[in-house]
Design goal:
19 helices; 20 strands; 14% strand
Length: 643
């Protein structure tokens, strides 16, 4: 009796639907498609839009197993109906009338609901859904309906549409999906939360196998094949979220480029190829996280700014704009903060001296010094970090190695002048304003981590400055190039000066103030620690022949001091750099062992320790140092035969 009643109901329903016709004019389909950013290897790093949805242009760009699995699971009569399955719909409406729910929607009806309606379940809404579905069938081919459907449905984890889902769960495009991967994704559609593989892997696996068996039932898969592949693991490679601050920086830059052209990031489905490398970025963020886990409770609010640029190109390969808890759209501390670099600024002082012909043996003094500011009449009397003076001379290379403040103060007053150091820093593209006062020898001017990373890269690239950039190319959805960036370089320093300074900065890592680096990283490395006098900022800027990275740690409140043993560049910032470099070297062949090229003008000769000049037979204290023979100006003036 019930069966007969259902049959009568279905016949009446079909007659009624056919009598009322269908929508002659469908509402316009309004779908905004997100733009997306990829790293230098083409891997997705993020989306820009209301929903993470990227359009697939045609069904041929989707694995056949997605189509087979979808139809076998959701609508086996898809190619035969006109948008409505009256049998299934009749059962669903009767269930609704009796107070329960049951699906009865075809793929076309689901699409109509997703495009034009809400998820409300009423008879009137169902009739409207039918009307719209028949209109869709009249206007679009079956393949077009499938394409629209797969572009609109939600797969969980902020992934709308099959393209975003394929990238999120398997890190591949939809046309590359295997049969098991396709079945997994189609299985999610029933309830993305219930079958979330990140939380319910066993449940997801069972659901996937249900979809696979559906393929057996419709003849797309043999039972023998099913028995074999149902044992396979899910193989989920959930795309992780890295580069939050970098993505925000790219967003701002892209908007500035595109909006004047009437092109919009949040709806026009652009592909932004960035300079970031996900492996480098992951290494950077993991290193920061490890250091923050080591911090005491009082240090948990400390922040970080880290940025890595590729030597010779300026491509930003990694960027961390805050601690692990910081807001992605907040302050980007890698590029936007200006803080005192402390002793990490000393290479600009000593680099300017080497450029003028001084040598690594040039002596300066580790003795107390006081300097009066001619404008403010304030007295500057720098202290060594140890608060002890040797009251002796010290060769330049050792002054760099052990970061002797008194020696730097004497050097800027007695061997050069502040204006020359400022000019040298500006030549290396430090664009921040640097006061021309002797205290800049200890880094009292304010700079950004990005400036420091790019300038130190000059030392690694034999004097070539490369302007940092984060966007390599922007394309529209058809692959047409809308914007293309090019490497912008210029020679700003001679290669010999770079080599000699690098030799000195290698001693900082090997046996100076940054020996903590060698606890984690054994490869080629040069760099400089920086600690401000009041312990508010801790830096390490380091490089190898491939990558230059600046790390700053401190608080957003510039007056708050670091502590707990992490107030120094060597203890707060250098371990982050070293852990990052160690992880990168594990992933990149040859990264560890790249060597700094030696210019042809570099020779190893004996220098007099007392004068820093080429030694004579009369010099009582001499040692072999690398020198630029093109800049040598005679022999030791203290111990010449004429004296």
């Amino acid at each position: 009796m019930i069966r007969n009643n259902i049959l009568i109901f279905i016949l009446v329903l079909q007659f009624t639907v056919n009598s009322i016709g269908f929508a002659q004019d469908l509402p316009p389909i309004k779908l905004n498609y997100a733009s997306y950013a990829v790293d230098d290897q083409g891997r997705i790093i993020g989306y820009y839009g209301e929903k993470n949805r990227v359009e697939i242009p045609y069904t041929g760009s989707i694995s056949k197993w997605i189509i087979y699995s979808l139809i076998a699971t959701e609508d086996r009569d898809f190619y035969n109906h006109d948008g409505v399955s009256y049998k299934d719909l009749g059962r669903a409406i009767l269930k609704t009338l009796t107070g329960s729910t049951q699906g009865g929607s075809t793929l076309t009806m689901q699409l109509a609901r997703n495009l034009f309606l809400t998820q409300q379940r009423t008879i009137s809404r169902k009739l409207e859904e039918i009307d719209l579905a028949k209109g869709l069938e009249a206007k679009y081919s079956k393949d077009e309906i499938l394409r629209l459907y797969l572009n609109t449905v939600y797969f969980g984890h902020s992934s709308w549409g099959i393209w975003a889902a394929s990238q999120k769960y398997f890190r591949k495009t939809p046309d590359k999906l295997s049969i098991t991967e396709a079945a997994t994704l189609i299985g999610l559609l029933q309830s993305p939360g219930l079958f979330d593989p990140a939380k319910h892997s066993e449940r997801t696996l069972a659901r996937r196998n249900e979809v696979l068996y559906n393929l057996v039932e419709v003849g797309k898969l043999s039972n023998k094949e099913f028995q074999k592949i149902k044992k396979q693991k899910l193989g989920i490679k959930l795309m992780e979220n890295y580069g939050r601050h970098f993505l925000e920086q790219v967003r701002k830059e892209a908007i500035a480029i595109l909006n004047p052209q009437g092109i919009y990031l949040n709806k026009d489905q652009l592909k932004i190829t960035t300079t970031l490398n996900l492996d480098f970025q992951k290494a950077a963020e993991d290193a920061v996280k490890t250091q923050w886990d080591n911090f005491s409770t009082s240090m948990k609010q400390a922040q970080v700014g880290l940025v890595s640029v590729e030597v010779g190109t300026g491509k930003i390969k990694a960027l961390v704009g805050g601690n692990p808890e910081s807001e992605s759209r907040g302050l980007n501390r890698a590029a936007q903060i200006h803080r005192q670099p402390g002793s990490s600024f000393k290479p600009f002082l000593y680099g300017s001296l080497l450029e003028k012909g001084f040598t690594l043996a040039t002596p300066t003094y580790d003795t107390p010094i006081s300097v009066v500011d001619s404008i403010t009449n304030q007295v500057w009397s720098p202290q060594n970090s140890s608060e002890v003076f040797t009251n002796d001379t010290i060769p330049m290379i050792n002054a760099i190695q052990y970061s002797v403040n008194a020696a730097a103060a004497h050097a800027i007053v007695e061997l050069t002048q502040p204006d020359s150091v400022v000019a040298f820093a500006h030549k290396l593209k430090i664009e921040s304003e640097i006061p021309s006062f002797p205290s800049i020898s200890l880094g009292t001017g304010e700079v950004t981590p990005l400036e420091m990373a790019a300038s130190f890269a000059v030392f690694a690239s034999q004097g070539k400055y490369a302007k940092p950039f984060s966007i390599a190319k922007i394309e529209d959805r058809n692959g047409r190039v809308l914007y293309s960036n090019s490497i912008d370089t210029s020679i700003v320093l001679d290669s010999a000066t770079c080599y000699l300074l690098t030799k000195a900065l290698e001693t900082v890592v090997d046996s100076g103030t940054a020996t903590t680096v060698r606890k984690y990283y054994k490869g080629t490395a040069a760099g400089k620690t920086g600690t401000t006098q009041d312990y508010t900022d801790a830096w390490f800027v380091g490089y190898n022949p491939i990558l230059s990275t600046a790390v700053w740690t401190g608080f957003d409140n510039a007056k708050k001091k670091l502590g707990g043993g992490f107030q120094y560049g060597g203890s707060a910032a250098a371990p982050i750099w070293a852990r990052m470099m160690s992880e990168i070297s594990r992933r990149v062949p040859g990264f560890n062992n790249a060597e700094f090229p030696k210019p042809t003008s570099i020779q190893e000769i004996e220098l007099c320790i007392d004068s820093g000049e080429p030694a004579t037979d009369n010099c009582p204290n001499k040692k072999v140092y690398p020198v630029d023979f093109l800049k040598l100006k005679g022999s030791c003036h203290l111990h010449s035969s004429e004296n």
